């Protein structure tokens, strides 16, 4: 099912139908609006509930340098707005949105500008991890940034066989890492095809990260893994300032609040923007039951 949805996501007819009707059909459950103004309302509500957030201007695979420059300008405005509104919000972005497909140096210059802009506001940038074909340049760019800057983090995906090695190589930098299971369609030559293996790899990655990373963001809605992290951190006396939980806007909202009530730091990834289609498709693929939610909305229209 996951494969069918992710493959269907590239079908032209599906794309144009969902792009036309998607917001009304249910994208709004996962996307905090098409504009920054709409998103700010949601971010403030999350903050008021005790949740931190990161925001993302949705988009990926920018195909020209002017487009990538426009994304940089848009993110500078996002940081300025977050500061003006006094929000507890940082930014997570994708290097292909900043022009990685056009060249690694271009993406590096663009993201470095944003990390420095964020630093001017005492804020932070996380670089999302995308498909495996851009993993190496993404980690190289992260490394270059981290060598001279504190306010930047990256992401590792437990479904890839190579990830324990990537973690080991990053550790000397005292990195700020988000660990995730992985959201893309990857072949079995490089990624565990079975969910139970992905979950087991996640446990190993999380434990190593909790013990040894500078800061670990445990990004999952999987309650078993969250409980495991809590018990592991208690057993190993890992202070709560060294890790946080992260979840997606619209997914397991009660669990988010329960963790805050228990005194944990919880950050909600809260994207916005008109280019929400691939993001929505990944959310549907993670939980095909979400398709039912979309189809029910379709029937009600
Ligand atoms: C903050 C954050 C940042 C992320 N960043 C990246 C990234 O940079 N790169 C990347 O490849 N992936 C990223 N992901 C996605 C991640 O890789 C997984 O695809 C996603 O989190 C689903 O896996 P899970 O850990 O929640 O566990 P699962 O085993 O998939 O889900 C556990 C339970 O959570 C609930 N759930 C999970 N997903 C959904 C959903 N979409 N809708 C409704 N309920 C759901 C269900 O109850 C499910 O039973 C990110 C996820 C989060 C939370």
Search tags:
binds flavin-adenine dinucleotide, 12 helices, 301 residues, 8-stranded parallel β-barrel, alpha/beta, 8 strands, single chain, globular
Describe this structure in words.
The protein is an alpha/beta fold. Helix content is 52%, strand content 14%. The longest helix is centred in the first third of the chain and has 21 residues. The chain is globular, with a radius of gyration of 18 Å.
Helices, strands, pairings?
Layout: H1 2-8, H2 12-25, H3 36-48, E1 52-57, H4 65-85, E2 89-93, H5 104-120, E3 125-127, H6 135-148, E4 152-157, H7 163-170, E5 176-180, H8 195-212, E6 215-219, H9 223-235, E7 243-248, H10 253-261, E8 266-272, H11 277-286, H12 289-300
Parallel strand pairs: 1-2, 1-8, 2-3, 3-4, 4-5, 5-6, 6-7, 7-8
The structure holds flavin-adenine dinucleotide.
Largest sheet: 8 strands, parallel, barrel
Order of helices and strands: HHHEHEHEHEHEHEHEHEHH
Provide the spatial order of strands within the biggest beta sheet.
1-2-3-4-5-6-7-8
Q: Low-confidence parts lasting 5 or more residues at pLDDT below 50?
A: none
Q: CA-to-CA gap between the ends?
A: 25 Å
Structural class: alpha/beta
The percent range for helix content is 40-55%
Determine the number of helices (DSSP H or I, runs of at least 4 residues): 12
Mean pLDDT: 93
Choose one word for the global shape: globular
Rg estimate, integer Å: 18 Å
Put the structure in a nutshell.
Helix content is 52%, strand content 14%. It contains 12 helices and 8 strands.
């Amino acid at each position: 099912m996951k494969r069918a949805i992710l493959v269907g996501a590239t079908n032209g007819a599906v794309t144009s139908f969902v792009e036309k009707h998607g917001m009304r059909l249910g994208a709004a459950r996962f996307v905090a609006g098409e504009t920054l103004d709409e998103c700010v309302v949601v971010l403030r509500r999350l903050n008021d509930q005790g949740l931190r957030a990161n925001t993302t201007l949705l988009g990926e695979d920018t195909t020209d340098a002017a487009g990538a420059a426009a994304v940089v300008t848009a993110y500078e405005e996002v940081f300025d707005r977050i500061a003006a509104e006094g929000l507890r919000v940082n930014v997570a972005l994708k290097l292909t949105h900043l022009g990685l497909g056009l060249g690694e140096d271009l993406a590096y210059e663009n993201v470095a500008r944003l990390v420095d802009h964020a630093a001017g506001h005492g804020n932070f940038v996380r670089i999302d991890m995308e498909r495996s074909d851009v993993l190496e340049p993404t980690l190289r760019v992260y490394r270059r940034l981290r060598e001279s800057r504190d306010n930047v983090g990256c992401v590792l995906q437990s479904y890839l066989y190579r990830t324990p090695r990537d973690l080991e190589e990053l550790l000397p930098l005292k990195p700020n890492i988000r660990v995730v299971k992985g959201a893309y369609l990857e072949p079995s030559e490089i990624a565990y095809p079975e969910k139970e293996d992905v979950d087991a790899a996640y446990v190993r990655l999380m434990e190593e990260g909790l013990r040894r990373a500078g800061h670990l963001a445990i990004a999952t809605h999987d309650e078993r893994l969250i409980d495991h992290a809590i018990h592991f951190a208690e057993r190993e006396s890992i202070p709560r300032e060294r890790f946080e939980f992260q979840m997606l806007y619209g997914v397991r909202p009660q669990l988010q609040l329960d963790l805050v009530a228990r005194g944990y730091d919880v950050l909600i990834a809260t994207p916005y923007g008109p280019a929400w289609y691939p993001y929505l498709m990944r959310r549907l693929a993670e939980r095909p039951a979400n398709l039912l939610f979309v189809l029910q909305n379709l029937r009600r229209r």
